[in-house]
């Protein structure tokens, strides 16, 4: 009979089996808790290491900045432009000037869709760092021989911008301190590619001016934001060497087409440093017009220096005039800075200051009835600044009554 007896239920038979089963269950619970504890420790460790890494990177940035300050060594200055939404300026981050992630932008000379992939490959420069030879334009570097590069150390030391012009000629232009050294004579002679130049603004004061023939008499002529010349030849001329444009007009060019066709001019843009602008505006523009237009972008370092120059002169002129001016430069400001680097002399047309008082005397633009806005830009300040330029560079402002030159001290 004992041989036919059913075995006891698990955990209830023989001496000690119930206790052993309970211990196994308790052991499994402890293992699960221990696993969760290990996961928690791993998470805490990763979080701490992430914070330490951020602190180390911050310290490295400070050390790098100090090293540049002590040695005066030039780096590639690649400062991103500020993003603008609904015409609201965002605060600038001073540490942006040390951001190695900023990519350079190539000069584009109308070779088609391949330019787009070139723009995307610019991100590859990140891995080389700002001190790498790959970040500089030189004869042996075929991939980046046309990259516009600004060398500086973010402390106002003079820098050299190298670029390849539309004719394939390698040249450079320089810019120094706020006054006096803006355009050193010996460097100006070596870097200018044009003799006399005219920069034509869009002011309504050009109407009935009869400046057209005078403007076309210059060796090179720049126009701003694709302003039309058809039906305005008598007042603004027709010759166009450069079309200087902001991003809004670049967007219109992509969406609505080339309304004021000037295929022989260079389309020059200055807001190409923003990744958003490049992706949404400039890449589509190159895809659409790359084979028919000569397209170039100003290097963000040069654009940033022009903005810094605005701020420096603004501080000086505000003290002189006992008046506050707006912080945001207009497109014409960057155009003037560019042309001063390319020309032996520069005459400005349609650059009379547009103020609230001027609304009654002339329209904002010579070609439409758009109402001007004086709450964003200080056009009168720009004229004061150009008069500062005229002290060290042959620059004049044309008006119907004559010429405005350097301001008297």
From TrEMBL:
Q: Where in the cell is it found?
A: Golgi apparatus membrane
Q: Which UniProt keywords apply?
A: Disulfide bond, Glycoprotein, Glycosyltransferase, Golgi apparatus, Membrane, Signal-anchor, Transferase, Transmembrane, Transmembrane helix
The record's annotation in Gene3D superfamilies points to:
Glycosyl transferase family 29
Q: Where is the composition biased (Acidic residues)?
A: 81-101
**Residue intervals passing through the bilayer:** none
Q: Name one GO molecular function term.
A: sialyltransferase activity
For this protein, the record's Pfam families field holds: Glyco_transf_29 (PF00777)
Q: Its topology with respect to the membrane?
A: Single-pass type II membrane protein
Query: Mind telling me which InterPro entries this protein's record contains?
Result: Glyco_trans_29, Glycosyltr_29_Sialyltrsf, GT29-like_sf, Sialyl_trans
Q: Which GO terms describe its cellular component?
A: Golgi membrane
Disulfide cysteine pairs (residue numbers): 197-343
Renumbered residue ranges of the record's region Disordered: 58-108
Q: So what family is this one in?
A: Belongs to the glycosyltransferase 29 family.
What is this protein called in UniProt? Alpha-2,8-sialyltransferase 8B
Q: Write down the species.
A: Bathycoccus prasinos
